[in-house]
Every structure is written in structure tokens, then in C-alpha cells.
Amino acid sequence: MTVHVVLREEELAVGEARLVAVGERELVVYRLQDGFYALNNYCPHQGAPMLAGRVGGTNAPSDVYCYRYDRDGEIVRCPWHGWEFDIKSGRSLFSERVRVRSYPVVVEDGKVGIRI
Amino acid sequence: MAANAAYPIIDADIHNEQEDRALLPYLPEPWRSRVAGSGIGYAMSGYWSPVGVMRKDALPPNGARAGSVPELIVEQLIEPFQVEAAVLTGVVYNISTTHDPDYAAAICSAYNDYVAHEWLGKHPSFKAAIAVSTLDPELAAREIDRLAGHPGFVEVIISSAARFPLGQRYYHPIYAACERAGLPLAVHPGAEGGGLSTAPTAAGYPSRYLEWHTNLSQMFMAHLVSFVCEGVFVKFPGLKLVLVEGGVAWLAPLLWRLDKNYKALRSTVPWLTRLPSEYVRDHCYLTTQPIEEPDNPQHLADLFNMMDAENMLLYSSDYPHWDFDAPDKILRKLKPEARRKVFYDNARQLYRLG
């Protein structure tokens, strides 16, 4: 496991995302309220670039005809087919088995690194 | 990224778009002033999707509509996937859910001229569908006759959102003209439930886009049964029908049911001298997108074995729409020879390309 430094903390504001390259890999680094997260720039469904996906919240599971908007800024939608993924874990919101690969992010001395 | 190194691809459904004002030079008065003043004014379904209609990465940086920049289509689709021919289907067939037959026919004519002048020469892969409105089938037939023989137009396209089932005799002038011109007829969804079309499902108006989109296959089932039972393929033996974007997995069970009923009720359709499914096999094609995706991909392959899928399917991407299917990511269970037919040979023969 190596930490690959990809940017400095101040380069990315909360709510922003940035495409970074680590070797052959294209990753998207997201800065959320509580820190940095990294996902593969590749949707497991048909390979769409996740960077182009809109980030927002979603309606959490609820009673019939109730809507509970939640997780604002923590959910990314694939830019093609609209599948929703949790940026913090890479998991899809519809199946335990479907996820975008996620990578641990390490922040040290203002440097944002990805552990691969 | 190339999907099939051994052979190129033909894409049967790409949605080129344009700003409404792009049609103005091709529109006569009084329609030009109408569009200049208030836009084309489609009557769409009204159903809302949180995903939107367009692929987010297909929006041109200059703020133009997705699908309106030929160079971007070439960059995102034609070149990476080695698309040898792309059938530009537009979106103008949706005009059939508006109300004035003369206006709808004028919009279609203007669009067809616009495509002929401003798209067909832009890339060697570009072919196009002649858009016609179903609001006046005689005017539609005249439009098909006008453009017949133009080498860039490879089919005629109409909306599946209609006032009544598409096999009925009211529409037959369109099918006669397609047969005269030697052009397949494509039927495409999109405006179901809008304007003067029927409710978008057999049960009426559902509450959400999720339900609306899922049930579009119902519309195609009803139209297909109508085409067969009304004797369209008997009356127009040269007509080929392309069912675009209506799903494919429903076909086999629908035909089982239709064939079974035919055995008892044949006398109500005495012009059908063969099983209904045989007319479908001889005259109909279905485009693949949005392909059904069961958790176990083998299940779809099994369904394909229950119909003549490898000879009836045409690959389509639906670029730049949200439910785009990448050619290298779907139908991986098909055997190589069947893949080649679906992604290339069937369309090449149907559209007489190459």
C-alpha cells in the first residue's frame, strides 16, 4: 500500500470534485463537509465517467407518500443512467453488490493522498 | 475502447437535435412566424425524471442542446466505437401529439430539409430518418414521396404516441408510401400521454416517470398486435417495421399469446393465412436500447433463444439520451456470429448500406 499525493487540501473546496490520475487509474476526489473521498472514474454498469455525474442528496427510505430528503452533497448520480452512489463508500443505493470502487484518502500536512 | 475489432457497428437510433430557430430558413409562412415567435411547442408527456433526458457528459460546453453538435457526436460515439453508419432519428416525430395537422406536416418537412442540408454531409456515417406526422397520413405520404430516392434517408419515422392503434386503416397511406419508396418504417416513443395521444399505459396515467418509462413497452405491444391483425403486412408485403426503444424481452410471450388466440379467432382476421408470429418474424425489427438487464444475463439470452432474436434485433445507442447503451457493454452473452448480425449485418441489409 502506497499513499499517492494527488493535490493540496486548499485546491478543492467543500462540494467540489476533481479528476486525478494515479498511474493508469483515473479517480475522482470529492471534498465533502467531513473530508475527502475518492472513487474510480468509472461506473460499474456501463463505464460512464463518474466525474460528469451530478452530486446532491436523495430521498431516504421512508413511509409510503412521505419524502425525507437527506445526505445532501453525499450522493453522486452516474451521468448516463442515473444510478445513485454513496460517495463515502462507493455503494449503490439499490444493491449491496453494486458499487463504484472507492479508495481510502489520507490527509497529512495539507496534502491529500490516496492509499492504493 | 473499440467494441468489435472484427467489424464496425451500425447504430439505428441517434438523436440529433437543433435549436427551434434552426428550422426557420426551411419553414414557409405562416409557420415561420409562429416558430420565430413562440418556438415549435411540442406536446410532450409531462412526466419528470430526476435523471433528466440527456447524458450529462453529452452537453456541449457552449450551452447548446445535447445532440446538436455533429463534431461531439463523432468524438463521443462514432469514432470510439467505430460506428460505420448512424441513423439520425431526431426528435421531431414527437410533433404528432400536437393538434394542427398542417402545422405538424410543415415542421416535419422543414426538419427533413434541414437535416438533408445541414447534417447528412457532415460525416460519412450520418444517415437519417424522414420524420412524418401521423396527424394527416395523406400529407405524410406526400412528404415521403417528396424525399424518396434521396440517398441519405434510409427510413421513415413516426411517433408511437398516437390517437389509436397504428395498424388501423387511417394510417395506411403512410405505409403505402414507405413501401413505394422502399423505406422501412420506424416507430419511436417519447411523447406518450401528451397532447392528443392516448393515455401512456393501458391502465391510464401513472404518477411517475419510472412507471411511464417502464410501461412504454405496452404501447409497442398494442401497436404491434394492431399492425399484424389489421393486415398491414398482407396489404403492404414489402413493408419493414422497426420498433425503436420499446424493449425486446416482451416479444416472445406476446407472440405465444397472439398465436394461441389466432387458432381460435382466425376467422376474424381471415386475411392472415399464417400464424401472426410469422408475419412479425418476416417484417419486424426491434432496436436493442434500452436493453433489459436481468441480474442473471443468461436469462436474457434464454429469452432470445425463444425468438429469432439474432435476425430481428438492431443495435441502437440512443445517444445522447440518459438510457444510452454502450455497444461494448451489452449483449455479451450473444455468440460472436449473432453479435455481428445484431451490431452490423441486420442493419446493413435492412438499410441497404454498403
Automatic annotation (TrEMBL), chain A:
Name of the protein: Rieske [2Fe-2S] domain protein
The Rieske domain, residue ranges: 4-114
InterPro entries given in the database record: Rieske_2Fe-2S (IPR017941), Rieske_2Fe-2S_sf (IPR036922)
UniProt entry tagged with the keyword Iron-sulfur: yes
Pfam families: Rieske
Keywords of the record: 2Fe-2S, Iron, Iron-sulfur, Metal-binding
Lineage of source species: Bacteria, Bacillati, Bacillota, Bacilli, Bacillales
Top-rank taxon, per record: Bacteria
Keyword Iron: yes
A Gene Ontology molecular function term of the record: oxidoreductase activity, acting on paired donors, with incorporation or reduction of molecular oxygen
From TrEMBL, chain B:
Listed name of the protein: Amidohydrolase-related domain-containing protein
Domain Amidohydrolase-related, chain residue ranges per copy: 59-353
Lyase recorded as keyword: yes
InterPro entries: ACMSD, Amidohydro-rel, Metal_Hydrolase
Keywords, in A-Z order: Lyase
One example GO MF annotation: carboxy-lyase activity
GO biological process, one term: secondary metabolic process
SUPFAM superfamilies linked to this entry: Metallo-dependent hydrolases
Organism per entry: Paenibacillus pasadenensis
Gene Ontology CC terms, in alphabetical order: cytoplasm
